[in-house]
């Protein structure tokens, strides 16, 4: 199976992995735009977007005139798909600054789903066998078209294949989540009916 993730996401994921594994340590300089373009055969815009994703996720910070460096990540709040949820950092009432109300940001997300096989850590979390077929969905949450948070979800195809939620961003529950579309009296979940 080929990698169907957008190129910018592949670049960001590769850099994130290098940071997580210590190949790029805290304080190390992220390769320059020219180096990233050459390494990944990507355009300026694609490389810039990948670096913005890293910055938004707290993996990197820019220093004017010097470049982008690996940051010492601090946890930030989670953004949930419903902007009205009380646990979303964007769910508060209209913010105020010294000049009056600040309009709420325009929120959106992008998603890319691929069918793949469960790596060992994911298989253990899902209680499936390593190598079982799963759907991996990568989300990029955006505020005013700028990356804010990354999220990855995994669903075992043994449970979802052939249902309306096999691909979470397609079908009747797309962009709403399955909980929004299923009455509690139905099956108790959005997945296949219980047997």
TrEMBL record:
Record-linked Pfam families: GntR
UniProt-annotated stretches for the region Disordered: 170-195
Organism: Streptomyces sodiiphilus
Keyword set, alphabetical order: DNA-binding, Transcription, Transcription regulation
Protein name, as recorded: HTH gntR-type domain-containing protein
SUPFAM superfamilies in the cross-refs: Chorismate lyase-like, Winged helix' DNA-binding domain
InterPro entries registered for this protein in UniProt: Bact_HTH_transcr_reg (IPR050679), Chorismate_lyase_/UTRA_dom_sf (IPR028978), Tscrpt_reg_HTH_GntR (IPR000524), WH-like_DNA-bd_sf (IPR036388), WH_DNA-bd_sf (IPR036390)
Residues covered by the HTH gntR-type domain: 5-73
Source superkingdom: Bacteria
Keyword Transcription regulation: yes
């Amino acid at each position: 199976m080929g990698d169907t993730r957008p190129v910018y996401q592949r670049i960001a994921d590769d850099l994130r992995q290098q940071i997580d594994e210590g190949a790029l340590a805290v304080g190390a300089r992220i390769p320059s735009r020219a180096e990233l373009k050459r390494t990944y055969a990507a355009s300026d815009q694609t490389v810039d977007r990948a670096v913005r994703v890293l910055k938004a996720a707290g993996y990197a910070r820019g220093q004017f005139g010097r470049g982008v460096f690996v940051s010492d990540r601090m946890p930030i709040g989670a953004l949930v798909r419903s902007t009205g949820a009380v646990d979303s950092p964007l769910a508060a009432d209209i913010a105020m600054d010294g000049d009056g109300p600040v309009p709420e940001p325009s929120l959106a997300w992008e998603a890319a789903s691929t069918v793949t096989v469960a790596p060992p850590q994911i298989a253990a979390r899902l209680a499936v066998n390593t190598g079982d077929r799963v759907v991996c969905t990568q989300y990029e949450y955006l505020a005013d078209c700028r990356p804010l948070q990354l999220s990855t979800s995994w669903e075992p195809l043994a449970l979802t294949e052939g249902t309306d939620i096999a691909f979470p961003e397609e079908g009747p529950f797309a962009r709403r989540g399955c909980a929004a579309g299923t009455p509690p009296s139905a099956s108790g979940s959005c997945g296949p009916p219980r047997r």
